[in-house]
Amino acid sequence: MNKNDLAREIASRMSVTVTMASQLVDTLCAVVGESIRKDESVLLQNFGHFQPWQQKERFGRNPRTGVECPIRKRVSVKFKPGKGLLELLNEKHEDTDICD
Questions:
Q1: CATH classification at residue 74
Q2: What is the 3-class SS of the chain, one letter each residue?
Q3: Does 13 fall in a domain?
Q4: Number of domains, the chain
Q5: Would you say residue 62 lies in a domain?
Q6: CA distance 46 to 49
Q7: Which pLDDT score, from 0 to 100, does residue 76 have?
Q8: Distance CA 54, CA 75 (A)
């Protein structure tokens, strides 16, 4: 699912226009991104926790040439799924459970 698909799905479920849903998605992404940029974590109850973390400077290797090169330190994001999301992902479906 890409951003446009997400906006269409939100528009359908909320009975709003796709334009309004797209603005909502853009705003959510902007708010989360700005919070993480300010070194703040974002917790969406039952969905998950976005937390910024500093990757240290390290050396990597170019896979084509094998030449070692420095990788600068940078901020990245860790995501820990919430209980509600994990429960949704791990629901048992009788028609799709092939292990039992």
A1: 4.10.520.10
A2: CCHHHHHHHHHHHHCCCHHHHHHHHHHHHHHHHHHHHCCCCEEECCCEEEEEEEECCEEEECCCCCCEEEECCEEEEEEEECHHHHHHHCCCCCCCCCCC
A3: yes
A4: 2
A5: yes
A6: 9
A7: 95
A8: 5
Q: Which two tokens stand for residue 8?
A: 């269409």
- The backbone region for 39, taken as left when phi is positive above 0, alpha when psi lies in -120 to 50, beta otherwise, is left
Kind of pairing between the strands at 58-61 and 48-55: unpaired
Please write the tens of the pLDDT for every residue from 29-69: 999 999 999 999 999 999 999 999 999 999 999 999 999 99
Residue 33 belongs to domain spanning = 1-37
Q: Distance (Å, rounded) from C-alpha 28 to C-alpha 87? A: 24
